[in-house]
Design goal:
Elements lengths: L1 E6 L3 E8 L2 E9 L7 H15 L6 E6 L2 E3 L4 E3 L9 E3 H9 L3 E5 H10 L10 E7 L3 E7 L2 E2 L14 E2 L2 E2 H4 L2 H6 L4 H9 L3 H25 L3 E5 L6 H15 L3 H6 L1 E4 L5 H8 L1
Parallel strand pairs: 1-4, 4-8, 9-14, 14-15
Antiparallel strand pairs: 1-2, 2-3, 5-6, 6-7, 9-10, 10-11, 12-13
Helix pairs in contact: 3-10, 6-7, 7-8
């Protein structure tokens, strides 16, 4: 049994994973932004203790940050102000006396999404794009997670774009710019609101640009969208693909690209168990 943990800005999600299957999940609110490092670590370890048993042989945890994967040190975690440098692996191994692996949350999602494909049809090169508060990108190349030298592979949301960066136009931040929450825009678009439908079309064009960047960088066989906004793919897919078809110089490659959606809550937990 492996304990997989997905640490987000809103929730701390834990799951007991047995041979790739989640047999139990627990979700609690994440840390208060005002909590100090010591308070956050005690809060996390307290909830881990509540599910810990002799059957659990390892812990895997995904965090919204760049990570020293070998040492398990977390740097400048998004939405956790006190986590500027946290020796998470060392702390948890000292506390629970079992091996601990730490990685970026987008990388964990990528490994979990890769695991959803049957053995006979695994992607050659999978790129995952989580559309949430920000944009998270993970890459799995022929079954191997691509992390880079500093766990920074895939941080393409910071690339300059228009007056800011890609992330500002390809995540919830795009909707914030327009003064609306994504789920509100989705509900209105589903009801036929013209303004909301046009908003998702514009979002699709921005995401089309991001898609081209991913194809230039990784030449994926598959792209998987995750996160809450991914559920709205039917509202922005046409505009996204039209943008790419009109600009991408290798139409044959784009025609072969398989685009999927995976929004199951268990995927990041399974991925964390695999790192």
């Amino acid at each position: 049994m492996i304990l997989g943990i997905d640490l987000g800005g809103t929730n701390l999600c834990m799951g007991l994973v047995d041979n790739g299957i989640v047999v139990r999940t627990i979700s609690v609110p994440s840390f208060s932004p005002s909590s100090c490092v010591e308070e956050t670590l005690e809060y996390m370890s307290g909830h881990i203790s509540s599910v810990m048993s002799s059957d659990i042989r390892r812990i895997g945890i995904g965090v919204p940050s760049v990570v020293d994967i070998n040492q398990g040190i977390v740097y400048n975690a998004a939405n956790i102000p006190s986590w500027e440098e946290v020796h998470l692996k060392e702390f948890l191994e000292d506390r629970f006396r079992i091996p601990v692996s730490v990685n970026n949350d987008a990388n964990c999602y990528a490994m979990g999404a890769y695991g959803t494909y049957p053995a006979e049809s695994k992607p050659e090169v999978l790129v995952t794009v989580t559309l949430g508060t920000g944009i998270g990108i993970g890459v799995v190349d022929h079954g191997r997670l691509v992390c880079g030298a500093n766990c920074g592979a895939g941080e393409l949301g910071y690339l300059p774009y228009k007056d800011s960066c890609l992330e500002d136009y390809c995540s919830r931040q795009f909707f914030d710019r327009h003064g609306v929450k994504p789920h509100e825009a989705y509900a209105a678009a589903q009801a036929g609101d013209i303004g909301s439908l046009r908003l998702f079309e514009e979002f699709g064009r921005h995401l089309g640009h991001a898609l081209m960047v991913l194809m230039y960088a990784y030449d994926p066989s598959h792209i998987v969208f995750g996160g809450g906004i991914a559920k709205a793919l039917p509202l922005f897919r046409e505009a996204m693909e039209k943008y790419v078809r009109e600009r991408y110089p290798f139409p044959g490659n784009f025609a072969k690209l398989q685009i999927d959606v995976r929004t199951e809550n268990e995927i990041p937990i399974i991925g964390a168990s695999l790192i």
